[in-house]
What does this fold into?
Amino acid sequence: MEGLSKEFCSRHKELASIEDIRMYSDFFIRKREEIKDHKEQVEHLGRVVSDRREILMDAAKDKKVLESLKDKKAKEFRLAMEKKEQEFMDEIAIQKKEETAR
It folds into this structure.
């Protein structure tokens, strides 16, 4: 009887070991799946970042063009105002000259 008891204990330990192996196997399978999912998510987010970076670069180019256009228009406006001011000053000078000539 004692021999059967030892054999039962031995088999019980083997079953526990087999159960542990199964548990660890299941754990590693789940972890592999999680790692695979995370890799896919990282790849997806990498593509999203790349797309957004491209959009940002296009927006930066557009901003630079608009700033250049704004500067050009401001310079044109300033030159036009200086020209009008000069014409106004010339007109005043002509009128004063005409008044002094009379």
